[in-house]
Amino acid sequence: MVNFGIEFVPKDVYWRTVYYAIQAEKGGFDNLWITDHFINRSVYVTLTLILNYTDKIKVGTGVTNPFLISPIVTASNIASLNEVAPGRVVCGIGAGDLTTLEQAGVQVTKPLSAMREAVQMINTLLKGEGLQNFEGTVFKVKSAKLAFKVRNPIPIYIGAQGAKMLKLAGEMGDGVLINASNPADIREAVELVKEGASAAGRSMDKIDVAAYTAFSIHENEEKAFKAAMPVVAFIVAGAPDPVLEKHHINLEAAKKIKDSLVKGDFPTAFSAVTREMAESFSLYGTPAQCVEKISQILKAGVTQFVVGSPIGSNVRKAIDLVVKEVIPHFR
Amino acid sequence: MSSVDLSEVVAKIPKSSRSSISTQLVDILLNAKGGDKLPSSLAKSFLYLWQKDKLEEDEGMEVLLRAALALDAEATLKQLKESNLGEVADVIQKAQQKGVI
Hints:
The structure holds two protein chains of two kinds. Chain A is of the alpha/beta class. Chain A has 14 helices and eleven strands. In chain A, the strands form two sheets. In chain A, strands 1-2-3-4-7-8-9-11 form an eight-stranded parallel β-barrel, surrounded by nine helices. Chain A has a two-stranded antiparallel ribbon with strand order 5-6. The longest helix of chain A is centred in the last third of the chain and has 18 residues, at 221-238. The termini of chain A are close together. In chain A, 49% of the residues are buried. By secondary structure, chain B is mainly α. Chain B has one domain (3-97). In chain B, 71% of the residues lie in helices and 0% in strands. Chain B is built from five helices and no strands. The longest helix of chain B has 25 residues, at 58-82. The model of chain B has no long low-confidence stretch (mean pLDDT 92). Classes of the chains: A alpha/beta, B mainly alpha.
């Protein structure tokens, strides 16, 4: 049986995010992910509050990154969070959003090595072991050890999109958060995760394969599309040309969106998003359409479907639609 | 009007309409501008009662009303009137005019 996850961006006051988290738990979601961007509310404050107001849903960073936050600090944060609700915490980590990191003045070098080393470091510290003279190519640690015990294993999920990172997730991750929404992209991604797992002699049964989608649902398809447009605009603007070409997206149209976003002209950028772009980079539609699209994604070997931002124009109603008209089709 | 009196106002809301009223008040709370203006104690009570499925009970309705009035009094009163709770809206409006709510 597939698990359902949901992602929230803590861009609003904490109590609204916690309200939706409680709603998600009541509705039967299994996992909850909170994004980690310094422009928004702290992921750990948000997760702590969510754990205090929920009883069973598993929660995690979706995702943190090793460049802005040292993996040592991440290990400490995750272990502390786990004390609030032992066994309900997972760690989601990815290479991070280049644009945001550049804004913060953080240089992203060797993302693959950084991720490999970060996962090793976090795993080691969460197991209660110390890092002694750790000599990675990106991270070097003289001596570090948590001064408190973590009483249960904490799964680490690797956020991935590119081929090498997907293989790394198969090699090292307890789970993978595939950053894609299109069934064909997800099929390809799962194959790469399998390759990585196979090369490391790991069984896929040990890996939670999550499709981390940009999702938008509404009873009216046009409204679902419109709600997806801002998120799709940012995805298109950040996508390399080969990715756009693969999806038959006009490069000139994509450039116009990017230029508009750079200028801060959001209405122009958002209104330039086409159906083709939205089909490629989001999963949107009526409940029946979403059920059909999710069914296609699950055939790829996905074990967790993540309802990601924006979810819908009205988040409460959108969650309600997923709970009442989507999840029951898969349970 | 004191805080105790608001519980008397809540008592005027029929049980049969509490489900829809509570949802409408929640939507006002979730969509109003200036969510950071909600007093922390009200926010915590709201979340606790939501977690415990008590928003439709007297205590929950009172917290919802207080919170919705704090964030968007105009929309809250309009919603009450549209939900055939004009009497409730009038009592609250008079209390507001006296500056006691």
